[in-house]
Amino acid sequence: FNARAASRAISQRDGVAAYCSAEVFGEALDSSESLRLALSRFTEGLMAQVQQAAACNAQHRLDERLARWLLMLHDRAEDDRIDLTQADIAGMLGVRRATVSEVGTVLEGKDLIQRGRGWVKVLDRDGLEKASCGCYGLMRDVMKDLKLPQPQAA
After folding, report:
1. Domains: count for the chain
2. Could you identify which of 56, 64, 107, 114 might form a hypothetical disulfide with 135, taking C-beta atoms 3.0 to 4.6 angstroms apart as the criterion?
3. Chain segment 55-86, per-residue pLDDT in tens
4. The domain spanning residue 48 has which CATH number?
5. Cα(139)–Cα(142) distance, integer angstroms
6. Global confidence as pTM
């Protein structure tokens, strides 16, 4: 294992993270079949999500993509309220903050979400699923098929 990571992680929510050196991680992989299997499944799921997100970004309207992204965050949230700024959302979707504001206004006008300074609240999850593209369901099903732990919505 190379001692330097080729990437970095950015947390979108408060939480706990653990760290170990590449050497220790490599030793754990060598000694644990279940860890290798879990990592393989996770990697396959992550790659499927990356590929689907790339196709989604190229093919679907921003309102559908924003709905998908909010649903994915909601799946992992402990509450209907998600603490994120419009700038955070814009960065994740690769658009300007003003564009997120415009599209958010559309979703808010349909009573799907409510927004405030630094937060978004999911009001109508079923409606948000209908407003999203089919990529949300595909990504969720991939994780189920790989038997990965499923995040639970509040």
Report:
1. 1
2. 56
3. 998 999 999 999 999 999 898 887 999 999 99
4. 1.10.10.10
5. 5
6. 0.78
